[in-house]
Amino acid sequence: MQDLGNIEFEYLMLKDADLSQCHGCFVCFTTGENHCPCKDDAPAIEQKMHSADGVIFATPVYGMNVSALMKTFIDRFSYIFHRPRFFDKKSPSSLHYRRSGP
Q1: N or C end: fewer C-beta atoms under 10 angstroms in the chain?
Q2: Residue predicted with more confidence, 99 or 37
Q3: Where are the beta strands (DSSP E) in 31-85?
Q4: Torsion over CA: 14, 47, 20, 16 (sign)
Q5: Rounded average pLDDT over 10-17
Q6: Residue 20: pLDDT band with limits 50, 70, 90
Q7: Are 42 and 22 in contact (CB under 8 A)?
Q8: For the chain, what percent of residues have pLDDT higher than 90?
Q9: Helices (H) and strands (E) in the chain, counts
């Protein structure tokens, strides 16, 4: 990243974040995410994403799918993927998969 010039960035390692699994109660959709029963780091993580000019998501591929930590992240933030406040954010997409074995 530093080869691109003076770019400010921050790593967020999901293993270090307190991110609860989604309960599937749909409270975030019906009454708003501030009423979510999960009390964890999700609001702070969302604020960091909102403040950023762009976000890069990366995860290892296990069993031809994202890691469990990334799946938890996707599930917990599913309410914002349909909200216009993030439509102006840049997020590059790239998928790398390597099959091992015969």
Answers
A1: C
A2: 37
A3: 61-62, 65-66
A4: positive
A5: 93
A6: very high
A7: no
A8: 32
A9: 3, 2
| 81-90 own/partner pairs: CB under 8 Å, 24+ apart | 85/50, 86/49, 86/50, 89/49, 89/52, 89/53, 89/54, 89/55, 90/53, 90/54, 90/55
The yes-or-no verdict on residue 72 having pLDDT over 90 is yes
The pair of structure tokens assigned to 24 is: 């599937």
Amino acid at 45: I
- pTM for the full model? 0.75
Tokens 């909102």, located at residue = 50
7's torsion region: left (phi>0), alpha (psi -120 to 50) or beta? beta
Band (pLDDT 50/70/90 cuts) for residue 49 is: confident
Q: What contacts 19, CB < 8 A, 6 or more positions away?
A: 40, 41, 42, 45, 69, 72, 73, 76
SS3 65: strand
Q: Where are the beta strands (DSSP E) in 1-102?
A: 61-62, 65-66
